[in-house]
């Protein structure tokens, strides 16, 4: 039943995604299952961002507003940035919950119907609790604006769980587009990351969908993905990606590969054909040198045309040459 509910919620969430984001999400899920790619842990917790988020002794919980509610009255956040939840990790967490329960409560918000609750932070614990067969879950009820809900959902995934780079980039983009006054500088401050990190991560969304899936699944690293942006042709990007994967190239080696591919595309400049000057041209050069008292060179462009180059070494020297030409 849990699997069916999870599948239904995923379908509802996908309907709200853009076609490109939905395609990446669907392909990413498949690719991650095939590769078994490992996730990466990121950052610190939400203790400095959400009041009362740290677990507290039992006698203090009532003051914090923690309550237990039916797990059937809780539903995932529709703005959840994370699209993929590793099954092995969820099973391990479910085993832990069976033994010790949920140590840290979910952060939820009451929905408009006044009966159900939407998860703001803690969807991974919620999913694991379902697997563990829990009937109730501990929650702290908060009231957030839509922008805040997306921010907190993003923060929890980045700082407590582990989004893949493409999910992270999509979350940043959604937050910047949705937030009325959100900038990369403000976002960087919220997630405690340099602004350049935000910018570089979001650049991955410029990759073709197939390459985004490779980055999301772990076949290509985030560094590899950014390196491939150095190629403008999609076909060449995909070919280079396959070389990187097959040969296990480091990011530095991938940069050299991209550099070589770009140089191979540059058109070779044709050198102008050298037209040999016959003896009469050489004699003409010598005669002008004697008359003008400076170096003179005749360059042939064709058999009947060309250019004459006269050297001068100062303004006075130029005036002298002009005066000689005027006299003749």
Descriptive account of the structure:
The protein is of the alpha/beta class and 328 residues long. The chain has three domains: 2-212, Conserved hypothetical protein from pyrococcus furiosus pfu- 392566-001, ParB domain (Alpha-Beta Complex); 220-269, no CATH class; 279-327, no CATH class. The protein has helices spanning 2-15, 19-35, 58-64, 87-100, 123-132, 146-159, 165-178, 184-190, 195-202, 209-217, 222-228, 234-247, 251-265, 279-292, 315-327, and strands at 66-70, 74-75, 106-110, 117-121, 136-141, 296-300, 306-310. The strands form two sheets. The chain has a five-stranded mixed beta sheet, sandwiched between helices. Strands 6-7 form a two-stranded antiparallel sheet. The chain is elongated, with a radius of gyration of 34 Å. The model is unreliable at 1-16 and 37-63 (pLDDT under 50).
């Amino acid at each position: 039943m849990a699997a069916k509910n999870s599948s239904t919620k995923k379908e509802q969430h996908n309907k709200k995604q853009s076609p490109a984001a939905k395609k990446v999400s669907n392909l990413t899920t498949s690719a991650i299952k095939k590769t078994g790619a490992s996730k990466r842990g990121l950052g610190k917790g939400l203790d400095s961002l959400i009041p009362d988020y740290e677990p507290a002794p039992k006698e203090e919980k009532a003051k914090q507003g923690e309550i237990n509610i039916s797990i059937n009255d809780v539903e995932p956040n529709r703005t959840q940035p994370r699209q993929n939840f590793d099954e092995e990790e969820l099973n391990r967490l479910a085993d832990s919950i069976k033994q010790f329960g949920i140590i840290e409560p979910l952060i939820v918000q009451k929905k408009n119907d006044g009966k159900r609750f939407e998860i703001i932070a803690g969807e991974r614990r919620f999913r694991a609790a379902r697997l563990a067969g829990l009937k109730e879950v501990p929650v702290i009820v908060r009231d957030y604006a839509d922008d805040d809900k997306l921010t907190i959902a993003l923060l929890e995934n980045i700082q407590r769980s582990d989004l893949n780079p493409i999910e992270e980039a999509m979350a940043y983009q959604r937050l910047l587009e949705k937030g009325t006054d959100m900038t990369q500088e403000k976002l960087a401050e919220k997630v405690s990351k340099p602004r350049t990190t935000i910018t570089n991560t979001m650049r991955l969304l410029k990759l073709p969908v197939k390459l985004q899936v490779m980055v999301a699944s772990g076949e290509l690293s985030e560094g590899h993905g950014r390196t491939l942006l150095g190629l403008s042709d999609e076909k060449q990007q995909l070919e280079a990606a396959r070389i990187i994967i097959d040969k296990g190239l480091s990011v530095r080696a991938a940069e050299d590969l991209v550099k070589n591919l770009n140089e191979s595309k540059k058109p070779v400049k044709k050198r102008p054909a050298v037209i040999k000057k016959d003896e009469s041209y050489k004699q003409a050069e010598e005669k002008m040198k004697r008359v003008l008292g400076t170096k003179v060179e005749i360059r042939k462009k064709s058999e009947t045309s060309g250019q004459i180059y006269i050297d001068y070494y100062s303004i006075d020297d130029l005036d002298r040459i002009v005066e000689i030409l005027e006299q003749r």
